[in-house]
Amino acid sequence: MSHPAMTYPEAMVVGLIQGVSELFPVSSLGHNVLIPALVGGSWARDLNVSASESPYLAFIVGLHVATAIALLIYFWRDWVRIIRGFFTSIRDRDIVTPDQKLAWMIIVATIPVGLVGLAFEHTFRVLFGKPILAAVFLVVNGLILFSGEKFRTKKSLQADQEAAEERRTATRGIDIRHEPAAGVAAVGLAAAGPGGSGGAAVVPARRPGHGSHAAAKPDIRTQREEDFAAAIRADRRLSKLDYLQTVIIGAAQCLALLAGISRDGVTMVTGMFRGLSREDAARFAFLLATPVILAAGALKIGDLIQKGHGIYGPILAGSILSGIGAYISVRFLVRYFRTRTLTPFAVYCVIFGGFSIIYLQVK
To answer: Can you give the pLDDT at residue 265?
Structure first.
């Protein structure tokens, strides 16, 4: 059976949009369904996600793998800690450190979406992978994001304040150190003052001679160390969640089987409803997305081999752009959600989804 071709422009445009929209809370699957339909012509024919024999499915597999690789590259030091925590917890037959707890939290949170995805992914894609439904669910996604900000719990708002205070404290020179049991060297600035524990590792705050300009604009290496220290603080806070809360947050990812509903968006909103700060909810969502996206790609690799004949070039080109877009996006969003809200993304989803509904009805 012959399949429609896929051109390089199609693959590169969709690949870049996939990489960005996979991590922004705006639904990559919704955009994968809507954009070809809105463009029309050969795009609508070649890029039909609900067609069982379409090479577009193989293309999406490649994009997912590229996105997962980008996440692994960005969070590689975090995953080293988490994986080490998993194996040390098995060795010690105990869960003590934040890294050990977080490793098991990710496993527990991934089980619901893994089971539902295996059982219903094909059914949901065929039934709901239609452009008009994707547009409707995109509007629904916007309303979910808006509700997540509008109806924040007091516990979540307090968690925002506590996270911000920890960030200010670290900036002023108080280090949030990592436990030796987790096997990672301490990073950040020296701890001092009441309430700090011993054993601080001192790292120079600024190189001499750079003055206030260096304080305002740290170099890339300093910024990465500060980000890593922030990640350790966030993981300590996340590790205080119990496993029931973790399952609830992880189960929210199942809604992303509906084209138009964002995995990261619903996971963040659920996390905030369970009392997480926005920063921690975003981090947990990104960490949870990594194994889910990678597993989805790995399970469909057979489709990539079987249905990708003749379009390996476009798949590669689109995947490279997808990975680049995902890396830049997660780098931006990790910092964005420390101080900013989901509201702009909610507005975008409602406007774009509403426009798509009207356009698809009248065209």
So the answer is: 97
